[in-house]
Structures are given as structure tokens and as C-alpha cells.
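Lab notebook, entry 389. We have the chain sequence and a SMILES string for pyridoxal-5'-phosphate, and the next step in the workflow is to get a structural model of the bound complex before anyone spends time on docking refinements. Request logged below.

Task: model protein plus pyridoxal-5'-phosphate, output C-alpha cells.
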Amino acid sequence: MESLLKAGELQYRYSKKLFEEFIGTRKHIKEILYSVETPTLLMDLEGVKSKYVQIKYHLPEVSIYYAVKANDHRDILRVLHSVGSGFEVASCKELQEVLSLGVSPERIISSNPVKPEEFIDYAYNAGVNRFAVDSFTEVDKIARITQRAGVYVRLTVPNEGSEWPLSRKFGVNEETALKILEYARDKGLIPIGVTFHVGSQCNNLRNWFIAVKSSSNLWNKALSKGIKLLVLNMGGGIPVRYTGEVLRIEDIAYYVRGLLRKYFTSLPYELQIEPGRSLVGDQGILVTRVIGKAQRGRENWLYLDTGVFNGLAEVLGGIRYPVFAEGKGELKEWILAGVSCDSLDVIAKSVYLPEPEVGDRIFLLSAGAYTSVYASEFNGFPKLKVKCL
Ligand SMILES: *Cc1c(COP(=O)(O)O)cnc(C)c1O
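Result returned:
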């Protein structure tokens, strides 16, 4: 019991530290924490901008294409456009949104290896001409629409050590990747490169090591077949801090640049990354409110006005948000539950907080990525509101 409370104390202090760090430099967010409607995701636009600048600083030779699916709020897209970011899109709606901001199609790519035909058609006609593939079927599909598109092939890489592994859904091994590139060439398309994704929230440098090494193998094999590749796309996966420390961007960048020097005798013509989570994740705070409390056996349950179906779906895959509430009482262990009637709708277990009352505010930190975009109106409860400041 003693040690459990001690762990709880540490957990609460860590969340408190993150909370204070976050609002300490963000007076404009602090001011409305207790007045904004709940549930609302507050996003710091200047913060998103500085994340972009920071990644660019550490990877100066790499082009950044923001993965729009992480948070598609128009103000976020606008601010990233203003600092020169490119965009990675998968659907007509994402593409329309980005184009409507005046982003030139050369700064847009589509890395989902399996795309609806209407999307390829729409994107190609809008001027987007680089698409990921990882099957012969996809090459056929693209070749039916255009003969002028560039395709880059997705390699599988291990996703161990990623919180959100992409499992085997996408990617092929080197041998098949080479065949796909040759097949694309034979179909009249332009084989331009290689891509991989180390898994989202990747905290394991080894994944980048295997991925870059494997990309270089494929690069050389392609060359020996007369295919000169130009683009190395290193996907997403850079982690953000949730309930524990993670690899820092400067360390990942330093390591990856070393790998590139070691495995590529001359650097690819274009190096790309597609960060989603790392640009927006820790720039958002989710403001929620307690709507109920109950003691069930030995468990203390706390019910919030949002949940798994209204934006917190990633908890089902293992993401744990730092949870903070101000209060002076003793810490108690809580199970945080969502607003709906569904038994799957549990946000977190073993959360330590001073006892709140109904109506009190609970803050979820690092909630800027993969939250609002996942929200539904299941059970009639509204989606998260997003306010960019
Ligand atoms: C989702 C996605 C990303 C972004 O991944 P993060 O882990 O959020 O950085 C990048 N590329 C592709 C192809 C994706 O599907």
C-alpha cells in the first residue's frame, strides 16, 4: 500500500510538472483554463510552429511533410504552411483542405500505400504526383489513372518499442519492394524512392537503424537493376512525452544523420519525414469536467464529460495521458471513465488525483495528436471542441 501511494505521488508530481511547464509559458491558455467550455482541446499555435522549427533545425537537410491526420484543424495547417511545411494527405477532404490554404501541390505527398481510386484521380488532377505503394495492385491502380506519377515503395520495418505499432498492415520486404519498383517502371510509372514508418510514438532507435539500413540495401539493389532512386521518405514516429520521458528529437536526428552518412555514399536527392504526433501532440491540453463519482467495491470511479469515443481512442492502444487536477486533499487512486454508456469507454486506470467534486476540471496533457480527429458523436455526446490560440 505504502509503495503504491508512493508511486501515485510520483505520478501526480510528474503530471503536475508537465502541467506547470505547459501553462507556465502559455499565459493565453492559462487564462481560459477555468472558463472555456468543456470538453475542449486547447492548442498552442506558436508551440506547433516552434516544434516545426526545432525539427527543421535538427534535420536541416530533410523536407518536412506534416501528416494531416494527426490533427487537421485549419489553423494548425495554416500555421505550418506559413513556416514552409509540406503536407502528407490520404483523403480528398484532407487534400482539399490543404489546397484551399494555397499550398502548392509539389509540397503535398500521399504515403498511405493503399488508396481509393477516386482519391488518386482527384489528387493527380490537382497536381499531386507522388504516391506510396506496397503492392502490385496499387501500381496497377495508379497506372490506370496516369503514366506520369512517381511512386515510392513502403518497406516493412520492425515496430518493437513503438506504442502504436502499425503491425503488418503495410509494407513489404526488400525483395518484393524491388519487384514492385521494377513492375512500376514496366507499367510506365516513375519509381522514385523508398519509404518506411517505424511505428507511431517510437521510442527505440534500433527501428530507425534497421529501417535506414534496409532502405539503403533496396536503394543499391534498385540501382543494379537500372533504377536510380531519388527520394528517401522516413515516415513519422518521433515520440512525445506522455507519462514518461522519451527520446528527444535532437538525439533521434543526430542518430539518423549518422545512419544516413554510414549507409548512403551520397545523400538521396530528397530526404523526407512525415511527422504527425511530434508536431502537435504536446502542444495541446484537453480540458474536461467531472460529471460523476462512484465507489464500486474498492474502486473509486471518476466520470468525465469526454471519453474513448469522443477523442480518446488512443487509450485503447496503450497511450496514457498525464492527468492533472488542482486540489489540496490527499491523493486517491481513480479509474477514469468516459461519458458514454459503453463498457469499453474507460480512459485510464490507476490515476492518482486529489479528490475532485462534480463540476471540477480535469486536464489531460499532451492531447494534441490523434484526439479531435478520432472523435465521434457516439451516444449523442458532442465531439471535442478544438480552440487554437
Ligand atoms: C500517420 C502517418 C504518419 C505520422 O506518424 P506519427 O507517428 O504521428 O509521426 C506519417 N506517415 C504516414 C504514412 C502515416 O500514415
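Notes for the group: The mean pLDDT is 95. Worth checking against the assay data. The longest strand covers residues 284-296.
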